[in-house]
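Progress narrative, work stream C.
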Amino acid sequence: MPTVSCFLSTTDHPLDENHPLWHRPLPDNRLPGTKKPDRVETDAITYGQYFSAISRFCAAGGWDRIITAASRQLEQPVVRQDLGRLSIFLEKHGAFYHPARLQVKVKDQALSFVVNVAASFHGRNALSREVKALERLNDQRPFGWFPKVYSFASDRLPMFLGDWFDGFHEFHLTQQPDSDEPALVVWDGAATRSVLSEKQAAALYRNAAMILTTCYDPLTSCQIFPWHHAAGDFVVRAEGDGVSVRLITVRDYATPSGIAAEPDDERAILDALVNFFIHLSIRMRLDRFDGVKDVAWASDHYIVPMLNGFFQGLDLTARMSGFPETFPDTFRHYFNHHKGTDLLTMARRIAGTVFDQRTEERRLIDRHLARHINELHQLLAVSG
């Protein structure tokens, strides 16, 4: 039988029933700007209940969930006798989930998994949709961009077991004392956080835009939504002058109400794609300084990488949808036929639909939107 140990973030912080935190409730990291639900929340989940629930989830059925996940990850059979120590690390108090990183010794190898635990009202509502979305996208877009889902349980504490991307870390914009331009820092656990170079930061925005666009279905307007850099949805790993990017959460994959509709002809397909593109371009620029501070607006430097990523993704998704190779150029010409004032009107409608006007995020968008749309319009006109 594997031995189970519980920790906060590292092995320097072990946790058991004798620790003062064991009987205390997990922090409630509710989504900024959201209202409390009308229904009464269930009792708060304690640290002890959290770790105990994950332990039971893993051990259920003779450790079948861990055995199945390890077999798929190693691409070879694993039996219970191959399992060694299981370490559970509480990684984050997220707006939707309290994710735990599992480290499992299997045949003298250390394998990593994630258990996303829905301890909040919003998380419980989202988790089953996320499981379906991840399974669908991993089937339709098998490029390794998302965690595979190995198992799911819908008990009092719903949770699912998936891949943990070793070496990938959350990132956020940060203010620099010697510059007006924010930099991108990687939360890699180092005492001094790594700052991405301009090339690496550009590659990050290009890859994130490419992933989201590749997952857009132009026939139905289905897309990954909601997502937000401030929530740490994307993670990054530096690789020389470039980076690799993964999307660790997909809260839904559908046609978002109010900002998209399922198109019924060629023009409707292009109109829906213009809406997707404008919304993507706005949301790509939003973050929070250091993940939790004021809302941040990314530099103009990242517009071109974002555009490049969008068109790279559009080429991929068009091919997968059976569209002609010329479809990205068709979209570019269609976009360029719009007047700048019309594009700004569309952008304001999208902002008004998606972002609450009372929030700091919306106020920041309103300040930058005209310049942002003008920049997009000029860049696409030149390249077209």
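Work stream C, second folded protein:
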Amino acid sequence: MLDKAKSLSAEMIRLRRDIHAHPELSFQEVRTAQLVADTLHEIGGITVKTGVGKTGVVGELSSGHGPTIAIRADMDALPILEQTDTPYASTNDGVMHACGHDAHTAILLGVAHLLKDSFATDGLQGTVRFLFQPAEENNDSEGLSGAPRMIEDGAMAGVDAVIALHVESTRPTGQICAPSGWSSAAVDSFEAWLVGAGGHGAYPHETVDPLWLLSPVLAALHGIVARRINPMQPAVMSLGQVHGGTASNVIPPEVYIEGTLRSFDPQVRQALLAEVERALSIVRPLGGDYRLRVWPGYPAGWNDPAVSGWLKEVAGNFIGDAHVFEDGMGMGAEDFAYMCQEAPGAMFLLGAALPDGIHRAHHANNFDIDENALPLGAAILAETTRRFLTGDLKLTGTS
């Protein structure tokens, strides 16, 4: 399978560069979805449905009976101005594929090629559903991202297992990481206004200074994880914005803050929200008040141990067990977690760092990947699917 994937390398690179040069934001992936649908039609033998989850595409290969496995790739880009000199740099100013979704889409199209051939040669029994998902990076006006929108439209109906990958721009090519258990964090965002009574900077005693109120609030917020959450439970409280005031001699009426909360355990998730409220309430004995708005985000992602074991086994066969790791995926959030609530699932990280030693973080304006990683990603997804449909891999010991 890896040799077959390598033979598709040029095609996957072409597709990835085409998508990279024409990035589209969440729920705006019209051109990308058309490219995906056209490519699936060209491969042949795949039923194609568009407009799933607004701008998503679902392809299906089926023998008519047997189990169903889904493979997911996200398609959307980010509102970032690209700062690279590659020949495939974004032609859409202010929009960039800075997280590798272009590679995910190209890889899954490669997997479709591989499995179309495998259905013909190996007599696979069952169904493969290719999920080209919109909007992993952002939500619509109702607060939902692409995964729950696709689920609403039936993309996960009847699915027995679901798998996915994510390129990792800081992990060497030829390595993968496939943890069992928690694989991505739950995320909640909040914004708050510390409300005082503004006035002249020369007469602070006649005001309730929200900049003064901010000081104990910051201490309380940053003490949540250190002093209010069980130290054995992973948790994050980070502030990303603080705004207040317009002039040096004017005390403003309010200060705005915005932050993110990350967790794995559902009880910790609720405790973080409660502690944010408690921290903000410090302003009331000091004469101020506050307003709080919470934006619930993705749930924590759970890599089913059995499905994660499939990915590790297949990857180990290709690259050797010494290059397969389980060191976790950190506190980043991924809406693939919604799909893993519908069926046993797992995502692995595909090492794709360029070998020049330049740091290219995800969501950075210099992001890029080593395209030599694409065949390995496609081969792992395709071979895992093939073995599942032949019965060599089974859903035992899931949790």
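The chain has two domains: 2-183+300-390, 186-296. No further action is required on this item.
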